[in-house]
Specification:
With 646 residues, this protein is an alpha+beta fold. It has 20 helices and 35 strands. It binds one RNA strand of 75 nucleotides through β14, β15, α8 and α18.
RNA sequence: GCUGAAGUAGCUCAGUGGUAGAGCAGCGGUUUCGUAAACCGCAGGUCGUGGGUUCAACUCCCACCUUCAGCUCCA
């Protein structure tokens, strides 16, 4: 029998008989490893443990701790769930059932039957039963015609549709127990590996993600090798719900969403406004240092302006309908600030000496989001962008892109937020979604990528995510429920300068087109604050905390001293409150703790006599006594430096 | 927009066709208190909205609104 050479992750090489399986290699290393192995990676591809290896290969055993291992685990779990569904609901048809970041889903067509929570319970029980049988997942390869025949007999049009794309190819199937599925694999060795399972939710999902197609029912679930891990995961889910900005926003009195004003139109309460204005002040400072000029533009504009920009009628459906005047004029609630800023740019001739011109505005825009899309502060119909447009000569472009990325990164660093950077390119297969000439697009995409490489950004590229006038560098952040949102953005635009005929006079005395950078480090204040609330779980750093200090006299007797402490802090600019309620100090502490106020100052006899305050920090408890003045100096410093931790 | 679920006091939640309840918060009083809940009392509701069935509807039926989860969309 011929031999093959296997290279292990540590670089070691070893010869094996041809057709050896991953499982056999694992068993050769140790029994424990063989037991833990879920799949193997062969030449960078994830394979079943039982699949014979026919040639020299790099080789890695995948366990639960490996992404590839989890992937096989959850994908196999989806098949197990499908088997349970088919057992309980004969005739069920299946769409796709992949693993996802955490867990898996399967899209189902059960005819008229709508799945309920009780159904999920039943399916879960059946899955447990099937897993306990511990039957193997078996791979089988069929000719395309035989595969089609199989699903024709079964009457599953979804799988037939999927097969259309693989015409003429060999098709792999997987069986476990009585269930057979069209599947590329890989899978676990057997169902018994799946120990703890939970079906989380059922929701509609369009077949193949197209809203013109039939809506299927999608069950989301998650499985783990032990009950303990499942319980921990479910506990974390509950914890995450406690961070939900919609819940904290009401509890901490930050903002209000009420149908009386309108869906997706948040009202900022006094405490939330403090956070919002602190953020604005922070960014204004940074922008002033970087040569930005502030401008202000109105909330509506002549419809013609948006015809020039191209936003109308292409985005007609996502705008509030125009306001029609009797004289035939029409106005649009502004969906974006750019066209206004372009008018400011072009109100007078510009020289190359003036460039770059950086126009900044906290501009509120209105977009008609679909009704099912609204989500707390993260998806709204009226929001304020920390918008700016940089008009520059082409030879200034890269430096300006760098500077805007640097500013955006400073923003996220200031809050300690974890961002993923996405280069959003256009989809060349769908060019009618985008304006401008192909050449401009290639140039702009190349340029942002070059800058990203030069400053060694860790990015990924996403096709089809560009805006209609140019590619973007997007700063993506996750919310408490693990959903990804775009916050900051930097966009390069060659299209609008053409549409608006923007010019400057160059050193050569000739007219030139500037390039525009659109950028918004926060993205929108609403979305940013929504994420920020969840990021800090409502426990804001001192400089953002709506109430920074609460003074708690132990009883009425010390009210006068408490007022002195309170007034002094207030005069120095600290956001401080005094709790003069007729309550015991334990009650007051509990109350201010639940309000997540960073500092409490307990004052009684001892403090009054010594000119002291007893400092109690949120969640950290009693920090001992200090001189009043000392506390004041310290807290002002923490606020000024915008420190994250104290 | 689509599929499904939900909506009872400011908040969290009970209430399966027969007079709407609790805890917390709020208000009034008593207590003057040392690091996460003192005590007593009072008030608080068009049961999301509008129709219908019924002697009688928070409860059953229909429509709409809003919220939630997911899908689609996101300049």
């Amino acid at each position: 029998m011929s031999k093959i050479k296997i290279t292990f992750p540590d670089g070691n090489q070893k010869e094996f008989d041809r057709d050896i399986t991953g499982k056999q290699i694992a068993e050769g290393i140790s029994k424990g490893l063989a037991k833990e192995a879920l799949a193997v990676e062969v030449n960078g591809e994830v394979w079943d443990l039982s699949r014979p290896i026919r040639q020299d290969a790099t080789f890695k055993i995948l366990k639960w701790s490996d992404d590839g291992g989890k992937d096989a685990y959850w994908h196999s779990s989806a098949h197990l769930m499908a088997e349970a569904v088919e057992t309980l609901y004969p005739g069920a048809k299946f769409g796709i059932g992949p693993s996802i970041e955490t867990g898996f889903y399967y899209d189902l067509d059960l005819g008229d039957h709508n799945l309920t929570k009780d159904d999920l319970q039943k399916i879960e029980e059946k899955m447990n039963e099937l897993a306990n049988r511990d039957v193997p997942y078996v791979r089988e390869e069929k000719k395309w015609e035989d595969a089609v025949e199989y699903f024709k007999a079964k009457g599953d049009q979804y799988k037939l549709e999927l097969l259309d794309e693989f015409k003429g190819q060999t098709i792999s199937f997987y069986h476990q127990g009585n269930f057979t599925d069209l599947c590329r694999g890989p899978h676990l060795p057997s169902t018994g590996k799946i120990k703890a399972m939970k079906l989380l939710s059922v929701a509609g999902a369009y077949w193949r993600g197209n809203e013109k197609n039939k809506m299927m029912q999608r069950i989301y679930g998650v499985t783990f090798p032990t009950k303990k891990e499942l319980d921990e995961y479910l506990f974390r889910l509950e914890e995450a719900k406690r961070r939900d900005h919609r819940k904290l926003g009401a509890e901490l009195e930050l903002f209000l969403l009420t149908p009386k004003v309108g869906s997706g139109l948040p009202l900022w309460l006094p405490k939330g406004t403090i956070i919002r204005e602190s953020l604005i002040e922070f960014l204004r400072d940074e922008q002033r240092k970087r040569g930005y000029q502030s401008v202000v533009t109105p909330h509506i504009a002549n419809l013609e302006l948006y015809k020039t920009s191209g936003h109308y009628p292409y985005y007609k459906d996502s705008q509030f309908p125009p306001i029609q005047l009797e004289n035939g004029e029409a106005f649009l609630l502004k969906p974006m600030n750019c066209p206004h800023h372009h008018q400011i740019y072009s109100f007078k001739p510009r020289s190359y000496r003036d460039l770059p011109i950086r126009l900044a505005e906290f501009g509120t825009v209105y977009r008609y989001e679909q009704s099912g899309e609204m989500n707390g502060l993260t998806r709204v119909r009226g929001f304020t962008q920390d918008d700016a447009h940089i008009y520059c000569a082409h030879d200034q472009l890269k430096a300006e892109i760098k500077a805007t990325i640097e500013l955006t990164q400073l923003v996220f660093k200031t809050f300690g937020m974890d961002v993923k950077i996405r280069l959003s390119y256009r989809d060349d297969k769908n060019t009618e979604k985008y304006g401008g000439e192909a050449g401009f697009w290639e140039q702009a995409q190349r340029e942002i990528r070059e800058v990203a490489d030069e400053i060694k950004l860790d990015y990924f590229i996403a096709l089809g995510e560009a805006s209609f006038y140019g590619p973007k560098i997007d700063f993506m952040v996750k919310d408490a429920l693990n959903r990804t949102w775009q916050l900051g953005t930097v966009q390069v635009d060659y299209v609008m300068p053409e549409r608006f005929q923007l010019e400057y006079i160059g050193q050569d005395g000739q007219r030139h087109r500037p390039v525009i950078i659109h950028r918004a480090p926060f993205g929108s204040l609403e979305r940013f604050i929504g994420i920020l609330i969840e990021h800090f779980a409502g426990e804001f750093p001192l400089w953002l905390a709506p109430i920074q200090v609460a003074v708690l006299p132990i009883s009425d007797v010390f009210m006068e001293y408490a007022r002195e402490v309170y007034e002094a802090l207030k005069d120095s600019g600290v956001r401080v409150e005094i709790d003069d309620r007729n309550e015991k100090v334990g009650y007051k502490i509990r109350d201010w703790e639940t309000k997540k106020v960073p500092f409490m100052l307990v004052v009684g006899e001892k403090e009054k006599v010594g000119g002291l305050v007893s400092v109690r920090q949120h969640k950290k408890g009693d920090q001992g006594t200090v001189k009043r003045e000392e506390f004041q100096t310290r807290i002002l410093d923490i606020i000024k430096t915008r420190a994250l931790t104290v």
